[in-house]
């Protein structure tokens, strides 16, 4: 009989190492000719709360679509797992609050599958939240939260348990890579998997451009705040002095490439200090690139599977066909 275990991660990234990596990445991005920030840094404690609010926004259809898939098709997904694998653990990359995956985890428990759930997230706050909430929401679940980067923590999960792995990569996290980077991410992920392991990935599909753009420009301005929070985080953690009022949130969507990109536009010529030693100059109207949310069509997704070293197994879509979770098997 499975029981609830909460094991604190042996691989928590140390605070000072984390801060210096954050500092180096921020300075590198702000010194680049085309300024950018790495979106993985959106997720500190306030960022996690803002993202959970984004997921509730009526404009952000992605959550409702994938929630529908998880609530209505978990039995079919679990059956597909069992058809293609046995004696497995579940690893979730970028688990967030796991509010959608809990439906699938519950289905597996109801089916009597004996598995351990390894949620991986760069946000320590998120891992703590899961450690607090999962014993109550899923009594009997065996799990171990792993705080850190995807691949580093996937190695830890493989070291802890020799079982076959089924990896969840949901919520269109894959969309936070350019198509080129998504290809190399899938190839790298494949190298961390064994032949026969399964991967369930969420893809937001191409649809009417206005619907997509609106999802990243909600009327309540929560996505704007989510972007501004990263500047605030730099001010808080790296002793920066960004003046948020001098930046404007500017999302774009190109229906030909499927790339939805968010920028912050500098509203004037200005200088931003980071710590004692770094001064960054912004020109009026200069963009700071924050995030991509790439949209796909089924042909592109099949190409990605094949270039990554995976065979397509099954596809689960919401009733409007706006979003799909694809199940692939490592070849
Ligand atoms: C867009 S949220 C999606 C959360 C969840 N998968 C869902 O569908 O609701 C992305 C999550 O991935 C985490 N994340 C982003 N980059 C990461 C990285 N490189 N390594 C580990 N976690 C990461 C973030 O902290 C955040 O919780």
Automatic annotation (TrEMBL):
GO terms for molecular function: methyltransferase activity. InterPro entries: EgtD_Methyltrsf_superfamily, MeTrfase_dom, MeTrfase_EgtD-like, SAM-dependent_MTases_sf. Keywords: Methyltransferase, Transferase. GO terms for biological process: methylation. Transmembrane segments: none annotated. Residues 23-329 form the Histidine-specific methyltransferase SAM-dependent domain. This is Dimethylhistidine N-methyltransferase. It comes from Chitinophaga jiangningensis.
């Amino acid at each position: 009989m499975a029981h609830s275990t909460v094991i604190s991660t042996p691989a928590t990234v140390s605070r000072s190492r984390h801060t210096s990596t954050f500092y180096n990445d921020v300075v590198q991005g702000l010194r680049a000719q085309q300024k950018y920030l790495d979106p993985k840094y959106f997720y500190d404690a306030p960022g996690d709360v803002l993202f959970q609010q984004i997921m509730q926004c009526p404009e952000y259809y992605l959550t409702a679509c994938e929630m529908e898939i998880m609530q209505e098709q978990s039995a079919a997904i679990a059956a597909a797992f069992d058809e293609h694998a046995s004696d497995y653990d579940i690893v979730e990359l970028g688990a967030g609050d796991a509010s959608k995956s809990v439906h699938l985890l519950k289905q597996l428990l109801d089916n009597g599958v004996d598995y351990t759930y390894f949620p991986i997230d760069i946000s320590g706050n998120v891992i703590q939240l899961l450690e607090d909430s999962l014993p109550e929401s899923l009594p009997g679940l065996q799990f171990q939260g792993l705080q850190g980067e995807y691949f580093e923590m996937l190695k830890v999960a493989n070291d802890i348990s020799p079982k076959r792995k089924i990896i969840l990569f949901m919520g269109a996290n894959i969309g936070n890579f350019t198509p080129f980077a998504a290809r190399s991410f899938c190839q790298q992920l494949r190298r961390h998997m064994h032949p026969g392991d399964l991967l369930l990935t969420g893809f937001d599909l191409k649809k009417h451009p206005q619907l997509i753009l609106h999802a990243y420009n909600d009327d309540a301005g929560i996505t704007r705040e989510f972007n501004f929070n990263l500047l605030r985080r730099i001010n808080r953690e790296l002793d920066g002095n960004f003046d948020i009022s001098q930046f404007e949130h500017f999302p774009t969507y190109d229906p030909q490439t499927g790339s939805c990109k968010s920028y912050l536009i500098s509203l004037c010529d200005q200088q931003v200090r980071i710590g004692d030693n770094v001064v960054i100059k912004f020109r009026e109207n200069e963009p700071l690139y924050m995030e991509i949310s790439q949209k796909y069509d089924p042909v592109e997704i099949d190409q990605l599977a094949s270039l990554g070293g995976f065979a397509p197994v099954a596809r689960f879509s919401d009733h409007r066909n706006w979003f799909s979770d694809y199940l692939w098997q490592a070849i």
